[in-house]
């Protein structure tokens, strides 16, 4: 018979199970291990170990006392079974270490209890139950209270555990780190602990099978806390997903719930944790009071269609999910690659506070007509795949909510039923963050409406990290991994009461930007269109060896090659000065040379689509002024470069005549340069002012010539 160190009762020293009051149960003759049972009272006054192969069964309604600073250890392949009604009173800093199996099998009306022996206990009176790789913990109708960590599961780590007949130390120990741990915890209560369940992944990815369901968590500082150090070794996100559905977390407030569940949350970049599925949580202590349409991490299988449609060959028959009704995303959730999710007509999807919904690359999300997407405070939708919004869809956003596009967003409304992006409250014009695009993103808005955002549409194309080329002898340039242009196609869309309706931040040397912003209405925005150029400069790498690339945000980069097409829009005024004041672009006359060129010529003079101010010029000459059969003054000037201004024209924004262009202002015509505006004539360009033609200048306007002016009036 095996012997154990420790004592139960006042006897101390080495003793057998029998001498401790544990009687052997019937064994088969070939058995090498023994079964023991304890009844009535069991006093553990010093460290006690159940060895491999042994099984201790504690009879129903037994009272166990674990002394202060004392540890009960269950070795690998050892088992401790607690029948119903067992009470374990534990002294300060007492603890239980499980390398084998612990089964606490209480009854609904006769629960097992692990509790502090103190008359006025705190939430950290005793250490709790520590579990290690390969261990099994089964709890049914069990209550654990007043522990530092009621359950502390150590997974994915190298654990030293004692061999038979040794104390827990680092001498004569085995190493095991490749066994799956199991946590099967149901119908149990965790009360007044510092941390109810703590799952810690160390060094390497752990293996954990968890079913933590139908439990109650009350008055714990943390109900469920997870952490992962595997990232420190350069590993990706842990494959472990903790199944914690159908529990009562003492609240129905998802924000408060998140504060007590520490899991991976993309919103705050906390990836040093594990993923926890606490969807379908209960709304009260009653087991059947479950919020059935709440989910997180991934789309639930019950939403998968049996006969899905095939929109694209890449989307197979197993990938279509339909959300028909009202749904809540309770925690960070991903629509996975090649999944198609459809929010059906008049259905509603709410993204809870501080939560992120991510569309992976090749994933698609379609909102059918009349569907509603509600973004709670500080929530986000990250679109790496494709998001399609149809007529009448509403996106309602609370303070701090944001939509991030690195894939594509298509919002296609109609003139009578727009796609509407709006704030939940209209008290201020900065209520939600707006739609933000990164390099390579595509946005297509047609008959949409965006209101009360910090930036309605923000193309933030300034890279946070710029990588120099590896060859120190080569010229320095950015290492651009994705040369796909960023595309903004925005038409027939209203921007109302935003701080900045559209904002464009770019590095022209490194990025391609395609824009068509036409026939839109800009109303009551602080700034209708804001542009900013950040030039790229290369120099040493900061360690004295040279070869570093970085962004210099202070020096301006005039004459960006990017021109923003923003014609035929209503800018909330028909006065050129008012329009220019709400468009922050390249304006040389006033020294603003760190903006982009914006072509807002032929602006609308009212909200009527056909009320266009013709003969207005910005940035460059329009193609309709090009002469089909120009005369040739010089062989260097080819037949495609003559433009004729045969009427009265107004230059409403900084404009230049390009190299090798011939521009003729015809007899009887007038060209007016508006206030604070510059007309630049490039080298090798010719500007001909015919007899009887005239040029007039507004306040602080300029005519800057590096080419040739031929004035036939003199």
TrEMBL record:
The entry's keywords: Signal
Signal peptide (residue range): 1-33
Domain of life according to the entry: Bacteria
Protein name: Organic solvent tolerance-like N-terminal domain-containing protein
């Amino acid at each position: 018979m095996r012997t154990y160190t420790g004592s139960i009762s006042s006897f101390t020293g080495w003793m057998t199970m029998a001498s401790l009051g544990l009687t052997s149960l019937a064994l088969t003759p070939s058995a090498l291990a023994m079964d023991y049972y304890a009844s009535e009272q069991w006093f553990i006054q010093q460290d006690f170990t159940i060895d491999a192969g042994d099984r201790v069964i504690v009879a129903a309604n037994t009272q166990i006392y674990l002394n202060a600073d004392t540890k009960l250890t269950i070795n690998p392949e050892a088992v401790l079974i607690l029948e119903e009604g067992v009470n374990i009173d534990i002294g300060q800093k007492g603890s239980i270490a499980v390398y084998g199996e612990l089964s606490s099998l209480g009854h609904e009306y006769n629960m097992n209890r692990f509790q502090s022996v103190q008359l006025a206990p705190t939430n950290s009176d005793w250490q709790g139950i520590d579990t290690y790789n390969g261990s099994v913990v089964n709890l049914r109708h069990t209550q654990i209270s007043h522990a530092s960590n009621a359950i502390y599961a150590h997974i994915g780590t190298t654990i030293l555990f004692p061999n038979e007949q040794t104390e827990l130390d680092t001498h004569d120990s085995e190493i095991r780190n490749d066994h799956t741990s199991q946590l099967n915890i149901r119908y149990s209560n965790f009360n007044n602990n510092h941390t109810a369940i703590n799952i810690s992944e160390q060094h390497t990815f752990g293996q954990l099978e968890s079913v933590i369901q139908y439990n109650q968590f009350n008055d714990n500082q943390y109900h469920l806390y997870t952490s992962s150090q595997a990232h420190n070794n350069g590993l990706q996100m842990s494959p472990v997903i903790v199944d914690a559905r159908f529990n009562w977390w003492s609240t129905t407030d998802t924000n408060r719930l998140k504060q007590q569940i520490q899991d991976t949350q993309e919103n705050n970049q906390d990836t040093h944790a594990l993923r926890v599925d606490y969807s379908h949580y209960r709304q009260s202590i009653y087991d059947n009071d479950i919020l059935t349409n709440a989910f997180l991490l991934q789309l639930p299988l019950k939403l998968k269609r049996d006969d899905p449609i095939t929109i694209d060959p890449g989307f197979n028959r197993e990938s279509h999910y339909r959300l028909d009704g009202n749904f809540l995303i309770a925690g960070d959730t991903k629509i996975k690659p090649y999944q198609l999710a459809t929010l059906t007509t008049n259905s509603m999807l709410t993204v809870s506070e501080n939560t992120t919904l991510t569309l992976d690359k090749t994933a698609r999300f379609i909102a059918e007509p009349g569907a509603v997407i509600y973004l709670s405070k500080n929530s986000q939708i990250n679109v790496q795949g494709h998001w399609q919004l149809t007529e009448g869809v509403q996106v309602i956003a609370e303070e701090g909510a944001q939509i991030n596009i690195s894939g594509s967003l298509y919002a296609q409304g109609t003139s009578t039923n727009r796609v509407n992006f709006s704030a939940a409250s209209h008290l201020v014009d900065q209520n939600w963050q707006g739609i933000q695009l990164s390099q390579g993103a595509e946005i297509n808005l047609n008959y949409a409406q965006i209101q009360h955002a910090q930036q309605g549409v923000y193309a933030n194309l300034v890279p946070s990290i710029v990588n120099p080329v590896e060859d120190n002898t080569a010229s320095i340039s950015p290492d651009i991994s994705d040369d796909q242009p960023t595309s903004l196609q925005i038409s027939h869309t209203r921007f109302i009461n935003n701080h900045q309706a559209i904002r464009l931040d770019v590095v022209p040397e490194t990025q391609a930007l395609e824009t068509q912003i036409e026939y839109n209405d800009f109303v009551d925005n602080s700034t209708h269109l804001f542009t900013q150029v950040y030039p790229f400069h290369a120099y040493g790498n900061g360690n004295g060896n040279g070869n570093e690339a970085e962004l210099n945000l202070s020096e301006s980069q005039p004459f960006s090659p990017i021109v923003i097409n923003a014609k035929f829009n209503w800018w909330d005024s028909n006065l050129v000065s008012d329009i220019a004041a709400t468009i922050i672009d390249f304006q040389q006359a006033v020294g603003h040379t760190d903006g982009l060129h914006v072509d807002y010529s032929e602006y609308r003079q009212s909200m009527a689509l056909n009320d266009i101010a013709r003969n207005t010029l910005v940035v460059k000459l329009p193609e309709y002024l090009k002469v089909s059969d120009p005369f040739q003054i010089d062989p260097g000037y080819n037949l495609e470069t003559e433009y004729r201004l045969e009427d009265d024209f107004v230059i409403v924004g900084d404009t230049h005549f390009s190299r090798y262009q011939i521009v003729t202002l015809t007899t009887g015509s007038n060209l007016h340069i508006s206030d604070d505006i510059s007309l630049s004539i490039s080298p090798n360009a010719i500007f001909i002012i015919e007899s009887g033609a005239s040029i007039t200048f507004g306040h602080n306007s300029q005519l800057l010539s590096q080419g040739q002016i031929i004035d036939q009036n003199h």
